């Protein structure tokens, strides 16, 4: 049994943001944090107070997370980015709204006393007995992951302990977010205090010339503590009391869509009957039987849940090796309902959603390999492109030369040339990719082609439909500035028709072994791209920047890197030797996007590879990819150093022994979910069970309605009796799974009750 929490995030848009630039506008972007860890950065939308992002993410969450926060900032190339405001949503709110949160939320001012993070290690005990006056002892051991309040990327933390009107302070630990104090403070225990007797442990950042910054606090009820005599452990730092913001309602708002999903996943054996039954229902289609379950799922799934159900079914059948057969069933169902070929797969049906999910799962790596480098380069070039005369901004386009300013005509001509160049480059890359398109995609396309040909055999229906739903003549009547691109688009349509014809005939290739090998080669590539690297063994950090640019490739068994993409000479790390993959403190290299890979060599020595990423998104994608690849490693570390070893000490906790075990716990958890993640059959089966359970009665009603429409009587055919038996079997399996979940919940309640009773006694 495993508990898994997943959060779907869609950052839609913003409105009424305040002006931050002298131009009378802002350049807003969002940072998403889980508790206080940044995991996502959106694109910057230039020169607007009403930005539209439309970015979607799926995030795996630790079970102990408290809040998800959205910070809106204004990007500034000359100084530090301005923080506009934030929206914070608690786990409790997400939990009580299983259908999700969707709407506009006001940005609030950021109060430094609420921006706390980290944990503190304390041991609190009550000493003395009998006639001896009892004392309250608070031992302050260490802290980790404190907020960075100083410009050097660290803090100078000290602890302030308060009880019954008395206050003690610890020593200040300079330049560390992982301080160690090992100090004890004693108070006379006041037996007369009521339940309001509290011990307050506060952490502060010491400043020489300005007021100290609050880093967080923990409160303890002493009366509850006395029965236990001692309490020891790591405690999460909390914020101070929230203050009323004078800017409330004036900082603009964000439209967000969020949905938290907590699932208890049972052992595989519980889901085997369900997956076998669904597999049989798809397999029976090959013998000409009516696909009962798939049709009923299609008929009873609502538009709101159809995409998610399609995702789960596609992944489940991929794991069973039956996705082609599953999609073929949906093709036939869709074609039976379609009378006009031009409307084929245009509806929001289970077939269209499943095909979309399949292409993302099976083809995402192919797509990245195909178009990733070109699209990244286009974005990095940041060339000004605009064809609509009403939207051309001369000041944004810059000068054409030293002697004259660009005119509107110049900009439109330049934009047209750039767009045609980009289009040509993208088309060329697509046309050359048929040889390494995944074989499974080619086979599904071929099966779809055959089914459509069976349903619409007339010659006039054999042409491929207008590509991208783009009729260029109609388009140009509404947007005449697109006329200049019409010849290139028309040529592209013809070329893409030829490309699709090649794809549907790929399965007939004589060199099937080569095609399969190339498809597998594309499928096993986990991640690749240029990064800045630094590798260290026993050497200390150099004073100058140690990073050099390498092309990094994460494959099935190794992480390799070389100076160029196609270099024959490369270095590599065997994935089973990786012990930890973690972030590095910003102050170490002056970058917030550095990660470290700690591995063990055959000699037993420990080696660290540092990777500097371009953005927080790239950092978290690499972190997640490497952690997934190393999820079965056994020799993993439980703690690590988020800093570097320099000048004979660790920069994070100031320990002098290089072999010190570390001052922060390793995470190992994956953050970002991607389409090409390894399949999780038990989770997909659990999600399908949840859906089928919710539509069980609707499936039953739909089945009997279809029987009446087809004129089927109670004692008609043996085949119909088998269908009824099949449905009864499905409902019986769903009931068994429901009972298994109820037993798990009862066991959990019993455990919690026993723990509570132990604490009481």
UniProtKB/TrEMBL annotation:
- Domain C2, by residue range, is 1-105, 116-235
Q: What is this protein called?
A: RAS p21 protein activator 4
Domain of life (superkingdom): Eukaryota
Please give the InterPro entries that the UniProt record associates with this protein. C2_dom, C2_domain_sf, PH-like_dom_sf, PH_domain, Ras_GTPase, RASA4_PH, RasGAP_dom, Rho_GTPase_activation_prot
GO biological processes: cellular response to calcium ion; intracellular signal transduction; negative regulation of Ras protein signal transduction
Which CDD domains does UniProt cross-reference here? C2A_Rasal1_RasA4, C2B_RasA1_RasA4, PH_CAPRI
Please give the PROSITE patterns that the UniProt record associates with this protein. Answer: C2 (PS50004), PH_DOMAIN (PS50003), RAS_GTPASE_ACTIV_2 (PS50018), ZF_BTK (PS51113)
Q: Where are the transmembrane segments?
A: none
Q: What does the record give under GO molecular function?
A: GTPase activator activity; phospholipid binding; zinc ion binding
Q: Which UniProt keywords apply?
A: GTPase activation, Metal-binding, Zinc, Zinc-finger
In its UniProt entry, the species of origin is given as Cyprinus carpio (Common carp)
**Start and end residues of each PH domain:** 524-631
Q: Where is the Ras-GAP domain?
A: 305-473
